[in-house]
């Protein structure tokens, strides 16, 4: 499953299958798992189609 996180500092959208680890945005902001969201259906379908 792919999760999405939005950076609260710069608004960048990040996607990954890793939902437990902290991510670091390119602006340096720490993105914790409390920011996890499922991507919109159209985005999720596109990612699954690439597999």
Number of strands: 4
List the secondary-structure elements in sequence, H or E: EEEEH
Strand order of the largest sheet: 1-2
Tally of individual domains = 1
Structural class: alpha+beta
Q: How much strand content do the residues show?
A: 15-25%
Q: Which bin fits the share of residues in helices?
A: 10-25%
Regions with pLDDT < 50 over 5+ consecutive residues? none
* Broad shape: globular
What's the story with the biggest beta sheet? Answer: 2 strands, antiparallel
Count of DSSP helices?
A: 1
Oligomer: single chain
| Rg on CA atoms, Å | 11 Å
Distance between the termini: 11 Å
**Which whole number gives the mean pLDDT?**
84
Tell me what you see in this structure.
The chain has one helix spanning 41-50, and strands at residues 3-6, 13-16, 23-24, 30-31. The N and C termini lie close together (11 Å). It has 51 residues and is α+β, with helices and mostly antiparallel strands. The chain has one domain (3-50).
What's this entry about, in short?
The chain is α+β, with helices and mostly antiparallel strands and 51 residues long. The chain is 20% helix and 24% strand.
């Amino acid at each position: 499953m792919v999760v999405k996180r939005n950076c609260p500092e710069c608004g960048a959208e990040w996607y990954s299958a890793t939902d437990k680890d902290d991510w670091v945005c390119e602006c340096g902001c720490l993105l914790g798992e409390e920011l996890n969201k499922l991507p919109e259906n159209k985005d999720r379908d596109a990612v699954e189609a690439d597999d």
